[in-house]
Amino acid sequence: MPESTRPTHAAPRYERPFARLRRQLRHLYHGDSRTALRFQAAALTVDLAIIALFVAQPVLKNTEAFLAVDYSVAAVLTIDIVARLLASRRPLHRLKQPVVLLDLFILLTLLMPYTLINFGFLRIIRLWSLSKTGRLWQPLRRRGLMEWELPARAVLNLVTFLFLATGFIYTTFFRQSSGFTGYLDALYFTVASVTTTGYGDITLEGPWGKLTSIVVMIIGISLFVQLAQAIFKPTKVHHPCPQCGLQRHDPDAVHCKACGHGLNIPNDES
């Protein structure tokens, strides 16, 4: 029988809607249409809501609405994780990525808020993971404001560390205090340590307290230096070198400083 006249076996009906769903999700998560951009903005809002819930947890945990809010966010996060896996071309490979594993652990802390309360502060790492995936910087890139991305990343790294350290210090040293007061003391101590102000009115007791203070000061100073460099160092433009791929160059660069290849960087006058 000729090849053209052989009967073709259509895909099972149950696979067609599933494939269509995956295509639609892939477009929503990775497309650039108006609908996709709105959907991505909504997904980013969910991510920020999870982080906001962590920040507000010391205040909310003793209220009647805490579990309702916590489980609602957990349900939305579950839908988001499953949808992203379906939108991926290699779901099993994506499931092994550190960012996804972190999301699964965050989901676990949301499902068991009292059992895993000691690890709830790790939710703030989701802010750092958002930075790494690039979702936070897409609006800047679409508007041609890529020169602001480096300072914004430095600010985000510092904010992430501040709240991560605050959460750890609150969970380890101040959890016995009343919710908001204890968290505020932890935040105050973290900022005082990072800025090396050292008022001394709040200190962490014992050897572990001293070691925690040392780590917070060392990492905090490093992040402050990174932020200062990002703000005050000469502005560079985003122009990939066609030969070596170096992304950032001086605005008036004629040759790539990495490989020496000739550049043609457009400016306002050209």
TrEMBL record:
Principal subcellular localization: membrane
Membrane topology classification: Multi-pass membrane protein
The entry's keywords: Ion channel, Ion transport, Membrane, Transmembrane, Transmembrane helix, Transport
Superkingdom of origin: Bacteria
Pfam families recorded: Ion_trans_2 (PF07885)
Keyword Iron-sulfur recorded: no
PANTHER family assigned: POTASSIUM VOLTAGE-GATED CHANNEL PROTEIN SHAB (PTHR11537:SF254), VOLTAGE-GATED POTASSIUM CHANNEL (PTHR11537)
Protein name, UniProt field: Ion channel
Organism: Jiella pelagia
